[in-house]
Design brief:
six-stranded mixed β-sheet; Ribosomal Protein L4, Chain: A; 2 domains; alpha/beta; single chain; 208 residues
Length: 208
């Protein structure tokens, strides 16, 4: 079974925390992670971009000048894409960027991302967030003592306004509820700090 360090809010190591091998020691499947991350970013796109082509802009009904013997290039409309005020050639139009990923692929990708965190020594388990009011200094000291000051991700099992406000002032840090866990955030953030309840919830849902 994989084992990670368990710490308190002061950054002191208080013991080891055993993880389930079904999730935290799974085979690394890079293509699955790549597919899920690409789909995640694509699904965030709104797709409302739009341009007017030559048939959408106003004007252009009459031929600007006769076809021949003017000394100028032929022109059939003053709303051609080569004219100032003309339409846009091959411009973007509203579209849906959504990409579907099978549930099995998502599970494989998530297990791969979690396993990478353990193999790269980028994960610890915090026993509890023992703060009653927002205190950014407490979390800065905690991250500096662990050496986790680079893009840390806090994975929690319940919403805590004090934790959210404290972490929101730390550049690159983010708090994520265990129900919203995704491969993109796991790959983007270098370090993972999870509560024991969040870890057990992942093992319960994805361990089968």
């Amino acid at each position: 079974m994989p084992v990670v360090k368990q710490v308190n809010i002061n950054g002191d190591i208080i013991g080891d925390f055993e993880l389930s091998g079904n999730i935290w020691d799974a085979p690394i499947h890079v293509p699955a992670m790549h597919q899920v991350v690409v789909a995640h970013l694509a699904n965030k796109r709104v797709g409302t971009h739009n341009t007017k082509d030559r048939g959408d802009v106003r004007g252009g009904g009459r031929k600007p000048w006769r076809q021949k013997h003017t000394g100028r290039a032929r022109a059939g409309s003053n709303r051609s894409p080569v004219w100032v005020g003309g339409g846009v050639a091959h411009g973007p139009h509203p579209r849906d960027y959504h990409q579907k990923v099978n549930k099995k692929v998502r599970r494989i990708a998530l297990k791969s991302a979690l396993t990478l965190k353990v193999q790269e020594n980028g994960m610890v388990v915090i026993d509890r967030f023992s703060i009653e009011a927002p205190k950014t200094k407490t979390f800065i000291y905690f991250l500096e003592k662990l050496g986790y000051d680079q893009k840390p991700l806090f994975l929690t099992h319940e919403s805590d306004a004090a934790v959210n406000k404290s972490v929101s002032n730390i550049p690159g840090a983010h708090v994520l509820h265990v129900d919203s866990i995704n491969v993109y955030d796991l790959m983007y953030h270098k370090r993972l700090i999870a509560t024991p309840e969040a870890v057990r919830k992942l093992e319960e849902v994805f361990g089968a």
